[in-house]
From TrEMBL:
This is Tryptophan--tRNA ligase, cytoplasmic. The lineage of its organism: Eukaryota, Fungi, Dikarya, Ascomycota, Pezizomycotina. Residues 1-40, 439-458, 472-491 are annotated as: Disordered. Its EC number is 6.1.1.2. It is an enzyme of class 6 (ligase). Keywords: Aminoacyl-tRNA synthetase, ATP-binding, Cytoplasm, Ligase, Nucleotide-binding, Protein biosynthesis.
Length: 491
């Protein structure tokens, strides 16, 4: 990771020339938007932890409370994921509606995405996908993963179309490594898939959004390129089942009532607030959402891991040694100045980055509690806490790398090809109302003309996937060349 290019993070920090809106708000307040994330700066000049409760109020979402968690368990028969139990997925819109549908086995799908801004993904990027994998397993529903290569082109001064197309491919590999079921998962890149039924919905969406609305929600101004202003229609239209006739069929009378559940980081909410408004006007089902907090940067709460800052993040390509060094060197500690003081007064797990990471990666609730209690009482020292964290992160990244090494070009092509998906939903309730075509394993595709249905001909799709593959290989070569020219890497 000697020289990460100046790239936009999943949703986060961007170099100045990439910022969508020059309309800077008060820098001392916390500011969470799709392009940057920063905590409030206190009078002492220090960045405070992000106040997620405040975001629930500001954005007008709902808290995931105990009653909802209990209902989740009752309806799905599964204990909520540790991210839900621990307030990491802390907020939602209409999650009850999704549970109602699951109870009746009415169709819905999962939709999430990634802006392919570079090929150095970090562990902050994979958390949503790991959670979505669990959701897919728990609920047995289709998953649509959008790769917004167009977005990452439009919002950057430097990136070329070819570059972002290459990232789509390499990022898809990282995403697939989370372990999704290819029978139930469609991954697409905007450059490859926009057209047909999807494009119809994009334009319907665009017609409902005025420049004033886009400006108010996203902060654009007269100097923003028009692609940025229009982009919300693309990210939004992916929420509609009718954008995917190869999965949900061609009958809009039926598909318009199928909603999606969007697991995403909280900063993506503005897109979907707008989408829910548009859906209403278009008479499409409104998307439901479940919002995640960020994985703190190594430097501490108030910021998030950023792909453009090597020392802020643990990358999926980091070695065990790099992980150890980064945690030991950079992870913000809630420990005391001296050993004596720590033993006497105890540490503060709430601000400790190593502990925060364990809340993401350690499954066992009792063990997590024990660690917290022992750290706060002074029994457990910072070095010891960091060692536990290092061990878990090394295991996480190591097993990720193992799975990633098995993702071949053929596997990516399979996930990204336009084809029907198979799913059953709630196993306790027969799918009586089959508004969605039940597909067989023999690969038969639903009929439909290539002109207006969103289905690319097989050959056109093949060609696009090939193009993407070439772009990814080119980028890889350029990177290797660059690395060779630099002649060494950091310790
Ligand atoms: N805009 C997101 C990003 O930059 C990518 C994205 C598109 C997304 N659709 C999504 C993320 C749905 C979460 C959910 O990363």
């Amino acid at each position: 990771m000697a020289s990460a290019p100046a790239t936009v993070d999943h949703v986060g920090h961007v170099p100045v020339d990439d910022v969508a809106s020059p309309e800077d708000t008060n820098p001392s307040k916390q500011d969470i938007n799709p392009w940057s994330v920063s905590g409030e700066v206190g009078d002492d000049g220090k960045v405070k932890a992000i106040d997620y409760t405040k975001l629930i109020d500001e954005f007008g979402t709902s808290k995931i409370d105990d009653a909802l968690l209990q209902r989740w368990e009752k309806v799905t028969g599964q204990k909520p994921h540790r991210f839900m139990r621990r307030g990491i997925f802390f907020s939602h819109r209409d999650l009850h509606m999704i549970l109602d549908r699951y109870e009746k086995n009415d169709p819905f799908f999962l939709y999430t995405g990634r802006g392919p801004s570079s090929d150095s993904m970090h562990i902050g990027h994979t958390q949503v996908f790991d959670f979505v994998k669990w959701l897919q397993e728990t609920l047995d529903v289709p998953l649509i993963v959008m790769l917004t290569d167009d977005e990452k082109y439009l919002f950057s001064e430097k990136r070329t179309v070819e570059e972002v197309m290459g990232y789509s491919r390499t990022n898809a590999m990282d995403i697939i490594a989370a372990g999704f079921d290819p029978k139930k998962t469609f991954i697409f890149s905007d450059f490859a898939y926009v057209g047909g039924a999807f494009y119809k919905n994009i334009v319907r969406f665009a017609k409902r959004v005025t420049y004033n609305t886009a400006k108010a929600i996203f902060g654009f101004d007269g100097s923003s390129n028009i692609g940025k202003i229009h982009f919300a229609s693309i990210q939004g239209a992916t929420s509609f089942a009718s954008s995917f006739p190869h999965i949900f069929g061609h009958d809009e009378k039926k598909t318009s009532s199928i909603p999606c559940l969007i697991p995403c980081a909280i900063d993506q909410d503005p897109y979907f607030r707008l989408t829910r408004d548009c859906a209403q006007g278009l008479k499409f089902a409104k998307p439901a959402l479940i919002h995640m907090r960020f994985l703190d940067a190594l430097q501490g709460p108030g910021s998030k891991m950023s792909a453009s800052d090597d020392n802020s993040a643990i990358f999926l390509s980091d070695t065990a040694k790099q992980i150890k060094n980064k945690i030991n060197k950079y992870a913000f500690s809630g420990g005391r100045e001296t050993l004596e003081e720590h033993r006497e007064k105890g540490g503060n797990a709430d601000v400790d980055v190593a502990y925060q990471y364990l809340t993401f990666f350690l499954e066992d609730d009792d063990e997590l509690k024990r660690i917290k209690d022992e750290y706060n009482s002074g029994k457990l020292l910072t070095g010891e806490l960091k060692a536990i964290c290092i061990e878990h992160l090394q295991k996480y990244v190591g097993t990720f790398q193992e799975r990633r090494s098995k993702v071949s070009d053929a596997v990516v092509d399979e996930f990204m090809s336009v084809r029907p998906l198979e799913w059953k939903g709630n196993p306790r309730v027969p799918r009586a109302d089959l508004v969605v075509p039940v597909t067989k394993t023999d690969g038969a595709t639903p009929t439909g003309d290539a002109a207006g249905t969103g289905e690319l001909s097989k050959n056109a799709m093949k060609k696009l996937l090939k193009e993407q593959q070439i772009a990814a290989k080119k980028a890889q070569k350029a990177k290797e060349k660059e690395a060779a020219a630099e002649g060494g890497s950091e310790a």
